[in-house]
Amino acid sequence: MDLIANLATGFAVSMTPANLGFCFLGALIGTLVGVLPGIAPITTIAILLPFTFSLPPSSSLIMLAGIFYGAQYGGSTTAILVNVPGESSSIVTCLDGHQMAKQGRAGQALAIAAIASFVAGTIATIVIATASAPLTWLALKFNAAEYFSLMVLGLTGSVVLAHGAPDKAIAMVLVGLLLGLVGIDVNSGAPRMTMDLADLGDGIGFVPIAIGMFGIAELAVTLGKVQDRSLLAVKLKDMWPSWAEIRQCIPAMLRGTALGSILGVLPGGGAALSSFAAYGLEKKVSRNSAQFGRGAIEGVAAPEAANNAGAQTSFIPLLTLGIPGNAIMALMVGAMMIQGIQPGPQVIVNQPDLFWGVITSMWLGNVMLVVLNLPMIGLWVALLRVPFRLMFPAIVLFCCIGTYSAGNTVFDIWVMLLFSALGVFFYKVGAEPAPFVLGFVLGPMMEENFRRAMYISRGDPLVFVERPISALLLLMAVVLLVILVLPSIRAKREEVFQE
Amino acid sequence: MLTRRIALCLAVSAATFALAAPPAWSQNFTKQVHIIVPYAPGGTSDIIARIIGPKLSEAIGQPVIVENKPSSSGNIGADFVAKSAPDGHTLLITDAGTLATQPNLVKKLSFDVQKDLVPVTLVMFSPYLFAVHPTVPVATLAELIAYDKANPGKLNVGTSGVGSIQHLTAIVLAKKYGIKWGIVPYRGGAAAIRAVVSNESNVIFNGALATMPFVAQNQLKGIAVSGDKRLPGLPNLPTFKELGMPIVETGSWQGFLTSKGTPAAMVARLNTELRKILATPEVVNKMAELGGDVKTSTPDEFGSWLTKAIGEWGEVVKAENISLD
Fold it and tell me: Is the confidence at residue B60, as pLDDT, over 80?
């Protein structure tokens, strides 16, 4: 068995006391960075990069990888407790996780997030160890046309996400799309809607939007209501999910892991989609889909599993192709190059101990994260009992610091405050921010890839249906639309018949 | 007694320090130095800054802080340095994109590279590897030109963005050899490589080191290398110079600059310290691992290098009427 031999090679590297230490250190730093909103893992990795120069390559990569998946993990903590998503992937965790916290079930939400991440991390490690080759092949099959079709599917799915009226969700997606287009257009180089502000050249930042619309807006809305704090006084033994709840989540975790593992491999848009997709899928297939958005525990388990699985499989294109799928992976390329390792297909052949060492360390890191985080849940929940008059200013302060540190510019803080106000407005008119953010993230990628595919095909739109994967994705989007529309058609017909 | 002596020492050193704390126009460093990287963490400029930062701090006895002020073309960070106090305590490290192409592409730039910034030294030069996807049935430049004539519209160059050196290089070669390839901009070099390895686009000019492994693994096919030196790793590939190609010097390079009005003595001190650091074997090796040769210069040499680069690329930009505003 090659796999077992490979894993043995890997554990021989990752289980050395020093590497276990670096793995733990990475996971710990990552968790802290994830919990503090806005201090992005990418900044942390960049700052720590020089310290890793003197380490052996395997130790340095093990630690940096630990920071990355530790942050994914930590990000869900703030999403659940105070509705501040650290990254695009934890936005979905806000939806039901924060609702659970409001109902006094923060402990269960945090625990299920930890358990789901662990289950997904374990499975994703096995996926990387066994299925790297076919997944690499898939990643290479994804060209502009496929990306476009994937984004169409994602946006169609986002309407399913919303638990309110679909027309409002569609409107929010469109507003998101529009704002996503601000900035210099990649295909033509022309600035669009930048109002001649250099700060808008790269578009509106994602961090200020997410922190403003979710974090601050949520605070403002909460302030406007009478507080019922009795819910927050939970006893420790009530903090754990019951066995029945865990069992209820297992299928959600598995589906989330599967989606996350596949989407995580796609460079660029994939990872952002995975938690949204997992949530959307769960909402469709779950037996208590009515609970989604009102504190459904599967609504936490599925996206948490998906984003952790996706975070791990996003290492596949890096390790097998040398192609970074996102900005953090690009930083990892830098880290490897400084160590004298040129990332690429030759790594797995020439340095199997490094390759398998890093992969097995991911599983060890996940074990450490659970060990680290489960006992912390009591502490986090206790934080909720801090009086609002102390907690609110602290959160606002952290949001401002986080927003500033993401781009080192004061402009972003103003953007964040603007979107806080907009977030409150959206709440008042009953429109949800999640479809907006999805439109904002996916819209520009959809446009960019549409135009790129059209340019490369020299204007032939058939390219989207001639390529099999693209055609399949578009077909799925159509089916999804039909499913969406059918019940309302049926409902209308019933109305007609009743009259 | 001991305590009094220590107290005296402290008082004296404090006094010396106060006396030694020189006015801003002197060539000593009086407070922390900021190196501004106008790109997101992880790029070449960022990594260079983080390698050099601690060593510069050791040399000047003041903390050195690397700060990212990211924007797609580096203009925001460069503008920040241009408007900083002219005391040599705020440095800019950036590349050909900010320094040579942006001034030509953006008319409403809030600063002038040559007037508002003072060159300190060049840091690194890395040549481009000119490669195609293996399914393109050509092995030489001549074959590529012939293939394009026979199959118009089949070739697409993946570049790191509109107006990037890669983009302008593709334009110059298209003009010189009558090649009708499409030019497809991506968000950065890594995205362009992904696209060409997956055959979305099929021609690339990209940093030699980052591209070499793909050629070694037959995921890309090398055609030539820019500059006048063959790559030790791929000795069979001819250079742009050997092939008589235009813009032999195309490639990526980085340099240090500071704010205008910085006293010449301060610039000279920075130049000396940075070149000392860049000459150590450790740094030379790290740069080689990043894919480039250390290439330092005097401030004046860097100034003329900038004038030449801005002029050369300016001609291409004007001839093609490319604009980013």
Answer: yes
